Structure formats: C-alpha cells, structure tokens
Amino acid sequence: MSDPAAPAPVAAEIPAGAPPPAQVAPPAAAEPAATPAPAATSLLSEPAPAPAPAAAPAPIAAEPPKPPEPVKAAEPAPVVESPTPAEPPPAPVYEAFKLPEGAEIDATEHKKFTDLLGKFESDTKIDHAKAQEFGQQLVDHYFAEMKRVQDAGQQAWTRMRDEWKGQFLADPDLGGANQKQTLVRCASIIEQYGGSAEQVKELRQALATTGMGDHPAMIRFVNNVGRILSEPKTTAVGKQVTPASSLPKSQRRYAGTMNNGAN
Q: Which one of 23, 138, 178, 258 has the fewest CB atoms closer than 10 angstroms to its CB?
C-alpha cells in the first residue's frame, strides 16, 4: 500500500529539440485522507493488536472466617430407677371338686388343672364362684368322657372274645361234637405241664386276662400237644403209658375251659 503523504514524483527530463510540454496546472494538494478503520488482517499481514482487556473490578474483601463454636459436652442421661415390681396376686384357691364314686385324681395333675383354672379366672376377671362352678363342670365332663371311652373299649373287647369263641365252636375239628373232648384234653395238658399249683393258676389267669384262652389258635395248639401225648405208647418192656385223658377226676376239674372255669 502507498503512503498518501509521500511527495509527488519529479517529472522526467525533456530531451533537447522537443517541444516544450504544455503547461499543466499543478495538482491540487490532496486532502489528507481520513485514517481508515483498521481492515481485517490478511494472512500475510501482521495481526492487529488485540484490544486491551477491561480492567477487572477490585475484589471485595472476604470476611474473615468465624471461629468454630465450642462443642458442648453431652449431658449424662438421668438415671431412672426401675419401679419395684408389684407382687402378683395370690393364686385362687378352689374347694375340692366332686368326683364319681371310686374315682381319684393324681395330685400333680390336680395342681396342673387348678393352675390353668386360676389363670383363666385371672385373665378373664370372672367371679371366683363362677370359676369354681366352671371347674366342676370340666371335671364332670372329663370323667363322663373317660367312662364312655372305657365302656366302648370293654364292649369291643367282649365282642372280639365272643367272635373267637364262635370260631372255636364252629371249627369241625375242635368244636361241635368234639368240643368237650378238646377242652378236657387242653385242661389236662395245663395241669400236667403248667408247673406247680400256683403256676398253673397264674397261667390260667393270664389266658383269661389276655383272652388267649378263647382264641382258636391257642386252643388248637394245646389240643394238638395233648393229642400227641395221649396216644398209647409202649415202653421198652412193653408197659403202656397212661394217656392224659384217663387222668383222675381231681386232675380234670378244669376240663370245661382253659380260662379258670370261665368260658
């Protein structure tokens, strides 16, 4: 770019013999051009100086930090004295309950029952007389139910023994026309091989208590043993052994049954 303030170039010298040049008015002085606004710099020109940054405002003085407040020590919790537990009220005492004739209640079980009844009375706040009446109703119901169960068991036991007796009587080998002979033979075996008189009594009692003296299988077993032993046998010298069926009457007093005379 040319500088507008530079002087005009000097005219070149006129050679000799040439006509004089026409008078040319000197050019008017050019007004100085206004300073142009800085153009955008090109890639080859130096970059325009960056505008000075605006002055940053003066910082506000920060307040000085406050000192930490002192931590107060925790006050100890007040000691609360546990109240003295109140003594429980005495357990209710009940009058003796009425029992069926001949019935008894175990002392330990009786205490368990009255403890439960007393707790029920305390929890429900019912009248003591009402609790006594309620306890008697429970006792009556208990013994009535026990009697019902025992009676049912006894009836079932009796029916079973009656069935065994019926099976014995219907057996063609043991019962019927052979019934008496079978019982005599069984009684003889028990008398001879049952041991002493006391042991024979004990054996018959066991057969009666358990009911096995009425069972066809037991009767058949004893009868078979007696049948084998009653068969005549000849000894080495030819003497016969007395069969069990021919024993004296004193040894055949239980001939009608194996259960101590109760058939």
A: 23
User: What φ, ψ does residue 234 adopt, rounded to 5°?
Assistant: -100, 130
Reported in sequence order, the residue ranges of the chain that DSSP labels E, i.e. its strands, are: none
For residue range 51-84, list pLDDT tens digits in order. 666 666 655 556 667 777 777 777 777 777 777 7
The two three-digit tokens of residue 120, written as one number: 């029920």
Number of C-alpha atoms within 13 angstroms, CB side, residue 179? Answer: 14
Is residue 207, in this structure, part of any structural domain at all? yes
Residue at token pair 């368990």: 112
Token duo for residue 80? 């609360």
Tokens of 160: 């079973």
Segment 204-209 shows an average pLDDT of 94
Question: CA–CA separation, 203 vs 196, rounded Å?
Answer: 10
Residue range of the domain that includes 129: 94-170
pTM above 0.70, yes or no: no
Residue pair 104/96 in contact by the 8 Å Cβ criterion: no
Amino acid at 100: P
Which of 125, 146, 170 is where one domain is finished? 170
Quick one: tokens of 207?
Answer: 């057969």
Which amino acid makes up residue 257? Answer: T
242 token code pair: 């007395």
* Helix, strand, coil tally for the chain in percent (to 5): 45, 0, 55
- Do residues 174 and 182 lie in contact, with contact meaning Cβ atoms separated by under 8 Å? yes
Residue 240, phi then psi, degrees to nearest 5: -80, 145
d(CA 179, CA 190): 17
Give yes or no: residues 152 and 183 share one domain.
no
Alpha-carbon distance 117 to 86, whole Å? 22
